[in-house]
């Protein structure tokens, strides 16, 4: 598996994932005075648990057959629906092959008594990744505004064998009665799905693809949920992708990369296709520059930002970058930025655009260039984190253990420090060299298995030349801005940085995959594969870890009031005081939590 180089943060994807997380954790909040109960879906244990958030006691436990993975709740809280995507297997040619139907189990919201079981259809909806498909039931489940009905995509299954073919369907069911209100068969594989017209319409995006010897164009499909029919189809030219539905569902943006080249005569700029959802037509196809990287949503100004290369130039000249803003069906602004812009972060009224060797600071109000400063290896930046007062920025680099501190007021580079313990890194490098020798006489899969002995989630290779995986680190900043904490997953430690002096205080052993700052900032949670360790931001020392047997990753969610945290993974689930991290209780009898909802309010992660 070759190392992937993510070049930009796609905010359309972040927006989608945020929406999915919300759907997973809560369906429609009820107005109650306190959050005193959590509903925990234990998919592996085939059970739904009601947990008292004060004591950790399991007050109710009901069995859910199959493979339950998602909880939905009606708007009034009277009914719950637990969705089971059905059994499936991954295939090489045809994605996920269903081995059983998708099921919705309906329950009474108060007593958790089962009221009905509904067979929805066949085929787990999924998102295509590099080497496998990720089940994506959350992304393809759409509630009605009143929370009474749910529309779910059943992906079906299509192969060269007619006898194995199963239909793609949109299925709408009543979450209270369990009645199937409509089935709509689809003739295209669906890549994205949105609700529009106050829940009366579902908008579907089908990406361009080859089907047998026929090339199918990209399409937008409009589905009327009252009539249960596809009422309109819009064929799109080119290869539009990366769909972004603006909040309010009035405008849908898609990005066509074009055919970029450094030679003027060969370069074909990309395009932004803008669809008016209300009018159900392509409202505009606008120039997006050469090699446009992403559609980035600016929530405060309600515009879409697109970074790209400028026009090709003669050899030896510097090719400027460009940043465009789109609102509605029009381009509203264009500003020159650093060469080869590949990474973009928004903070307040400013955008920070990282190019090949420099960083451009752009004022978002009116989209105007404010300043630019040089930064070595800016083209390898893959993260920027801000201090609470927005005076400092903390930059991470792909394939590097370096952490750079930026003065955002000047702006300029203050200093860089090295995260991680060098001795540990050197020892891992020696192990990687041994793997390289072995892999020259082994197959790819044997080499992969050997690389996994390093306990890495993935590995990098180049024709049997195995190396140490790049650090998958994250950074958090203490609320007062005096200390920053960088997790290095390569060396399994947290580097504590004194921000005013730009110096390393210590490097503390803590194996993890990501960091989370607890409310108030007194503790940092180091979230790992099998454990969670709390790091004290006053003593700068890690505590003893909490263990999660059988976990692939530890998750941490908080109640909206910020009083309680729930940490779960594998066979363990803990209730914590959100401010101090103190364990209130460990919930017994958990086999594998898929989702959590809190009574009365949303959670945040």
Give an overview in words:
The chain is mainly beta. It is built from three helices and 52 strands. The strands form 14 sheets. Strands 42, 43, 44, 45 and 46 form a five-stranded antiparallel β-sheet that branches. A hairpin with a 3-residue loop joins strand 43 (523-527) and strand 44 (531-536). Helix 2 (422-439) packs antiparallel against helix 3 (444-451).
Rounded to the nearest angstrom, the radius of gyration is 25 Å
- The 3D shape can be described as globular
User: Unreliable runs, pLDDT <50, ≥5 residues?
Assistant: 1-34, 425-472, 601-605
Helix content: under 10%
How many β-strand runs? Answer: 52
How many helices? 3
Query: What structural category characterises the helix and strand content?
Result: mainly beta
Q: What does the average pLDDT come to? A: 84
- Beta-strand percent range: over 45%
Largest sheet: 5 strands, antiparallel
Q: What is the terminal separation in angstroms?
A: 30 Å
